[in-house]
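Re: the multi-chain job from yesterday

Posting the exact lines I submitted so nobody has to dig through the queue logs.
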Amino acid sequence: MFLSRGAAEPLGVAEGAMIGTLPDWAAWVVRVGEELSRVRGEYRVWMAITAPTRLFLACLAAAGAVRGAIHAEHQDQAGHFASLAGLPPDTPITWVGTDGMLRSGYLLGTEVDHGVDCLVYRQRTYAGIGPTTKRLRTHCELIQPMDPGAEPFAGRRPLALCPAFARAVAGVPLEQLAGRSRLTSLLVGEATTLEIDLRASVFAAEDATGTHVGCLLDVVRARRFLHAGAHFRSDIIPSVSTDVPDDIDAAHVALTVFDGPQGFLRLRDAAPGNLLFVIDRWSPSSAEAVGEFLRERAVRSTEDVELEAGPPPAGIEAIAWAEVS
Amino acid sequence: MLEGMSTAHELFTLAEVGEVYVEAASCPRVYQIVRARRRLRTTFRGEPPAVWARIEGILAAAAWRLSTIPLPHNTPAIGLQPLENEIALLVPGLFDSSELTAEVATAQEALAALCDSGENPLGDLVLAILGTAIAARSAVGLATRLALGPVEDWLKSVGMEVPILLRDRIGSAPPFETLVLVGSPRWFPAAALTAPRADSTCFVQFDWLGSPRPTEGLLPGASAGVARPMRATFSAGAHTAEPDELSPAPNWEAISARAAATARVRTSAAEPDVEARLLVLAGEYGVFVEEGDESDLMVAVAAPDGSIEIARRSARTVVPGDFVVLRSGGSAPDYIRQLADERFGAARYRAHQRRWKDALRAATAGAGGFSAAQRELKRRGARAANLRYWLRDASIRTRDPSDFRAICEFSGIASEAGTIWTAMEHIFGAHIEAGFFIRQRLEEAVERIGFGEIERSGRSDFEIEGCGSMSIYRVDGRSPATARVPEDLLKHPFQLEAGVWHE
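And the result, structure tokens for all chains:
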């Protein structure tokens, strides 16, 4: 039924061992997430969509946002080396090895080796601390400080559950997606429901080596559901929260996706980035939440906005406006 | 496509191609009841004398039940006979010969005839539709919670074993081949039309309810609509009624005002008013709840594995169909506080709590009133929007310590801020422990009774060690607007006046 795939969207659905085209509704939501991740600056977009079900919608939008943000990132090699060199000794760090696996250890400092600046560090191993390693300043982009409070882990860890899937969907080297943390999107909803959608291995992508079945968690990289020390791109805020947690660094958040009315009613004022509000038309409090959404438009300074993602497909209604700062 | 994604895709496909139509049955006697009630309402314009108000309530209840329950009219579960008995006592006492009295008398005769009638026009239509469908993939949806079990039993008795869904539960059910919904489309969530859950959704209603109106989406001005055509297989006769005039629509404002007035009689004049929303509970009870971010209710939720979880949720998110846990038997509604004091040692820190409350109240008065106090607190860096809540006995401490410091400075007790904060942490911890303690016992109690039974009856009472009498109520209605009521009315279930919620 979905075996003739469009060329533009690498994410598809698993049809047994084969890949099928992502349905229109899913592909559109990914495009919306991707587009909203690029809207920055003088205004922010408020968007609401209603659908016959919320299944996968918020997570697909977050996957689009992560992918969009990664493509907009650029590496400042010299600046990155300087920031690493400025860290205090024994700062926990991670790096991606030549085998594509994530390792961790402690930064020792910098040295000049044959006239070239190097970073010096030691790996945490199962036996303790490994030998000192040097890396040239031109090869340090895959070395990253660990998130505050994280401790180095022993041995090595895979960067993703299905690396080939993650690489094919993101369209960038896996190290770029999973080798560093940068909080790009927030998902506000029921954590258990979101985890089910994120871990469902019902998607597929293909590359030269074949078809790879995977789950959205590999692209969305939600901190709450990754192992300690892994690098993340998004995070979950339970919809019962009354505020954005203090450990959320909102500086780079491009999109907050509200999966259902509860989180929107509580956190819309505090949420960073552009806002996408996903509503199941069957939800009992959907009408009230839509009322609040429309009231926000009435009290803010807004302009109409038209998305490049195009009109929504059958079954979805959407409305978007830009809040002018 | 694998499960999960295929379910989602099926629901989107149904939203695009699912057929929705309306079939109608005829029953002029029910219309006579509807017409008499309408005349009564237009005659008195919302303020009828007591006897007329009761008659209106009876007619409204009869019309609603007959239009939503697909059972033979004389089935006791519809409950027509008690209504007929009552109106038969009231009508002879009207002593006038107005057109209104004549119309009410005609309605009473119609009601008496229906009590003796084994006819089941809506049920017959339901069976005819299910007869052409795949029974294993079909379901019946009801707009009322009354007679849920009897409808299920009746369908079984005629060899039709299909699930019965309440209107609030249709959205969480799996997709069907055929879904028969009993009543006007207006009595079901609009999503039944804009996001159908079956290949074929058929509304079964009386013909005098008229043709269905076009559907609308949730987002006015949305870039793509979800409105869809709805076919009517009948032409409405001359006697049409609006679906909205039949649905239970209590006068929320009047109920709130009466409940507040009753509470004020037994409350001291100093009791402050608070902004609260009225929930209608099963069994014609009502309760006022606050909807602030820091105010919550205990709710019973059925987990996917069938077990029951007791959780705390903001009252703002509680909607009809949910189950709330409240204290009954006239005890103070704040059972967590009592338990925290008696079992988890919070009592010894309450003096500190009173200390900062009293100081804050005095400082608020001294500053020139609430708004002036808010401005002053804001100037000191506090999130002053919460001042109204902080002034309440129910609040223990602020979420942010910096807000608390600002309050203590403003209230002239800055030197005690650290000590009081530590004491409040103890109280807060005791409340958490009390909440956990009571949740466990409530889950055990609900498991003993069986959630199915509670769903069916709408209410269940039990004794909880250390807390006394507790009740679980199904929420049947939610006032669209809030009202100002005395604080001690909050979370305190009270009996509504007869007939205001006529289901």
